[in-house]
Design goal:
The complex is a heterodimer of chains A (494) and B (289).
Chain A lengths: L13 H24 E6 L2 E6 L1 H23 L2 H21 L10 H23 L7 H32 L8 H26 L8 H17 L4 H23 L4 H21 L1 H4 L5 E2 L22 H4 L7 H26 L2 H11 L1 H6 L4 H27 L1 E2 L6 H14 L4 H17 L7 H15 L25
Antiparallel strand pairs in A: 1-2, 3-4
Chain B lengths: L1 H4 L10 E10 L2 E11 L4 E5 L6 H8 L7 E8 L2 E4 L5 H7 L1 E3 L12 H7 L2 H7 L4 H4 L3 H21 L14 H13 L5 E5 L7 H18 L2 E5 L3 H7 L2 E6 L2 E6 L1 H6 L1 H8 L8 H11 L1
Parallel strand pairs in B: 3-8, 3-9, 6-7, 7-8
Antiparallel strand pairs in B: 1-2, 1-4, 4-5, 9-10
Helix pairs in contact in B: 4-8, 7-8
Classes of the chains: A mainly alpha (494), B alpha/beta (289).
The complex binds adenosine-5'-triphosphate and magnesium ion.
The site of adenosine-5'-triphosphate has 15 residues of chain B, from strand 2, helix 2 and helix 13.
């Protein structure tokens, strides 16, 4: 055989492998024993404890054999792994399909399917190892594969983008789009917009902003106060709220943007909390923790979504001469946020190709070099901060009008953390990555409600897995903003 | 000592005059009363042993440090500029470009983007601070095309045209060095400061670099300030040499003169019976604090 690839090395160090698997199983046991093994039950007159040690043992055994499978694959024994995992996956899936899964130690359907999926993954890897004699797909190779996916997505963006937009436009009229689904879609789309806005600050300009939610709050409160006190309509208040948030961004950014890296992150975190605390304590202005209610709902350019409009006005359903349905307002809201998000996206994509956007990226790469080229770092960062804040403010206005009620509780640090996770997970600077990550992070946990109290645990585990598997984010591949050689090929990643 | 004899005689016509420059870091005097001038269309080399204070002079000239004493006068057509009073980015806008001892490219951006980032101010003005660009007006598109042409010109000079679209970080070392020079030239400077451009280059690359620097001097008629350890580069292309040792100027003149100067030979080869220990001790103290 030609020695282009390393032949499979069959080296099985049995004690070492057993030790490794045992250790993994022990860690699984130690983690699962308190979290899965003990369940508190509300009893009359106190809490009771329900033990589920069967499930803990099952988890440890699963981890042991899973690890063994990987160890055997690494050592070059794909055949037994293939057979074992295939059998296990087949049994599990047939149990699940026939509804006989009650005999399994785990009662959660989704969890069982997840385990089946893992078994399938191991099977596929074993088959892959049989097909390619290299023992293990090198980490670098895997990076390359994901880079190629990233490149393919970027390349496909030409048709993938419009396709995604088409799907997004058609979404409210798909058969499964009920009210609950649309509400979720609006939520996801709000986070997509926030992610795209924060992507300017973090992804392009490289400024780690942990207080992004502050601008979301400023936008929401500006909108609510403008609408309540000055009786301004949705379409007037929206840009005003955006401008106010941008102003807040510039104001906050001015003193803090001299700091770098970790320091900036800490200070923005502090500012985010300060804004929230001001909202809580400035009772006369913001109504404190009670929040603001009665925020006007958006109208269809002056035609409200009400069954019986006030005297002398016409409502949406009268205008179009259709029956009144409350879903009309939801669908309208969905389109509003879709348009706002798309505007954010197009604005960002365009800016990236302009000198300002290039300066942002250059600043992210090397601030010292920027200075030596005549780029004013403070001003350039301020524009990024301000523009990012503006989009957060607009998203905040939308949030206010959708809810009809806002209170400081909606603007806690966890929101900043989620938005930042969306950006980092999607791949900093990647627009499509943000969409994928927002669907994963916002949509999935909603769908996975069945996991109950383990939902956030699964969320965290998922994040850790992605960060191990793809530390630079799901779709991190940067394409030059301008090319000299038109027919330029994509360079080999690496 | 010859350093004391050197006065600012280089004339008012010089593009850059460094006058009585002193830079202290705590107790350490990194540069001590240094005066020299850089003429238009000349390569002025700044040489000296490791730690002599050469990079510190550059950092001060380009606004990263402020001098403790002394000033920099840049004589432009519309009057002199006093660089020590200006911010780093304003100094670059006034026409002083530099490269770094350890290359500082925008490694995650393409080669072409590196060269366009250097034309930031020009393009920002053309795009009305992004507005004309957002609207994609013809005036902006023309400005961008011109900027790309300038970039292409320099890419042709350094032989990277066919690799313009790959990441700067993926270029071999020698190409990165030359790209950094091209990037500095894209701000269309009147004075180009190069910090050890030949470091790490092989003989062939080093010869190419000499040709490039001579080309910049002769065709673009600007002043070059060059820090270099590679004596073959210094002796071959520089017009004027200033020698630093422990922050002090110990010699200055044409390459041939400097080479024969006993003070320079002493500084480079070392001299056992040299009794001048205080600067070394001072230096250690400065670093310790
Ligand atoms: N920011 C600083 N703080 C304190 N000391 C510094 C600082 N920058 C430089 N120095 C000291 O100043 C002296 C001159 O350093 P400099 O880097 O200018 O030397 P150099 O001539 O460029 O040397 P090389 O040939 O090794 O590059 C050194 O002793 C250095 O330790
Ligand atoms: Mg140096």
């Amino acid at each position: 055989m030609a020695v282009t690839t390393l032949p499979a090395q069959r080296t099985l160090d049995v004690p070492a492998v057993l030790k490794e698997c045992g250790l993994a199983a022990f860690v699984a046991f130690a983690l699962a024993a308190p979290m899965v093994g003990l369940e508190t039950l509300p009893l009359t007159g106190g809490l009771g404890i329900n033990t589920r040690f069967g499930a803990v043992a099952y988890a440890a055994v699963l981890v042991f054999f899973g690890r063994l499978g990987f160890a055997l694959l690494r050592a070059g024994y794909p055949v037994p792994v293939l057979i074992a995992s295939l059998v296990f996956a087949a049994v599990l899936i047939s149990l699940l399909l026939t509804g006989a899964d009650q005999i399994l130690p785990f009662k959660s359907l989704i969890l069982n399917w997840f385990i089946a999926l893992l078994a399938v993954v191991i099977t596929v890897r074993a088959a892959w190892a049989l097909h390619r004699p290299t023992a293990e797909m090198a980490a670098r190779e895997r990076e390359n594969v994901m880079d190629r996916v990233g490149i393919a997505v970027l390349r496909g963006a030409r048709w993938l983008g419009p396709l995604a937009i088409a799907v997004a436009i058609a979404l409210p009229f798909l058969p499964f789009a009920d009210r609950r689904f649309l509400d979720l879609a609006i939520l996801v789309m709000t986070y997509v917009m926030l992610g795209w806005g924060l992507n300017i600050v973090v992804g392009l300009a490289g400024l780690l902003d942990l207080g992004y939610v502050a601008f979301y709050a400023v936008g929401a409160y500006s909108f609510a106060l403008l609408a309540l006190h000055f009786d301004l309509g949705f379409w007037v208040s929206l840009p005003l709220a955006g401008l106010m948030a941008a102003g807040a961004g510039v104001l906050l950014g001015f003193p803090v943007l001299r700091l770098r890296g970790d320091y900036l992150a800490i200070v923005t975190l502090g500012f985010g909390e300060m804004i929230r605390i001001i909202l809580v304590n400035w009772y006369s202005f913001t109504n404190g923790p009670d929040g603001l209610s009665g925020i006007p709902r958006p109208s269809f350019f002056g035609f409200p979504f009400t069954r019986r409009p006030a005297e002398g006005t016409m409502s949406f359903h009268q205008l179009f001469d259709v029956d009144f349905a409350s879903i009309q307002r939801i669908i309208f809201l969905y389109y509003v946020i879709l348009v706002l998000a798309l505007v954010t996206n197009m604005f960002t994509l365009r800016l990236r190709k302009l000198p300002l956007g290039r300066a942002w990226e250059a600043l992210r790469e090397d601030e010292v070099a920027c200075r030596s080229l005549g780029i004013n770092p403070t001003n350039t960062k301020l524009t990024a901060f301000g523009i990012g804040a503006m989009f957060a403010g607009i998203a905040g206005s939308f949030f206010a009008t959708r809810q009809g009620f806002i209170s400081p509780e909606s603007f806690t640090f966890i929101e900043s953390a989620i938005i930042l996770s969306i950006v980092v997970l999607g791949g900093m600077g990647s627009q499509i990555g943000v969409v994928v990550a927002a669907i994963l992070l916002i949509g999935m946990p909603e769908w996975f409600r069945e996991l109950g109290q383990f939902r956030m645990l699964a969320f965290g585990a998922g994040m850790v897995l992605i960060m191990i598997w793809r530390p630079r984010g799901l779709l991190a591949h940067r394409d030059p903003t301008i090319r000299l050689n038109r027919d330029g090929d994509f360079e080999a990643p690496g | 000592m010859s350093a004391d004899a050197t006065t600012v005689t280089a004339g008012d016509a010089a593009l850059l005059r460094v006058e009585h420059l002193t830079i202290r870091f705590g107790g350490l005097i990194a540069v001590d009363d240094l005066s020299f001038a850089a003429q238009d269309r000349e390569i002025t080399a700044l040489i000296g042993p490791n730690g002599a204070g050469k990079t510190t002079v550059f950092n001060c000239l380009t606004g990263f440090y402020k001098p403790s004493v002394g000033r920099f006068v840049l004589n432009l057509a519309d009057g002199p500029r006093y660089l020590e009073r200006m911010e780093g980015f304003d100094i670059a806008r006034a026409g002083v470009a530099r490269t770094f001892q350890n290359i500082r490219l925008f490694t995650g951006m393409s080669v072409l983007e590196n060269l366009l980032a250097a034309q930031h101010n020009k393009l920002m003005r053309a795009s009305f601070f992004a507005l004309a660009g957002l609207l994609n007006l013809r005036s902006y598109r023309r400005a961008e095309a011109e900027a790309v042409e300038l970039a292409r010109y320099w890419l042709d000079r350094i032989g990277l045209s066919d690799r313009a679209d790959i990441n700067a970080g993926n270029l071999p070392y020698g190409d990165q060095r030359r790209l950094e020079i091209a990037r500095a030239m894209c701000i269309e400077p009147v004075l180009l400061c190069l910090d050890e451009p030949a470091a790490g280059l092989n003989v062939r690359e080093s010869a190419e670099l000499n040709a490039l620097l001579a080309y910049i001097r002769d065709e673009h008629r600007i002043a070059l300030l060059l820090i270099e350890h590679d004596m073959s580069v210094v002796m071959e292309i520089s017009d004027h040499v200033v020698v630093l040792d422990y922050g002090k100027q110990i010699s200055a003149g044409s390459p041939a003169e400097v080479r024969k100067d006993p003070a320079v030979i002493r500084a480079y080869l070392g001299e056992e019976e040299d009794a001048e220990l205080p600067p070394i001790i001072e230096k250690d103290l400065g670093e310790g604090s």
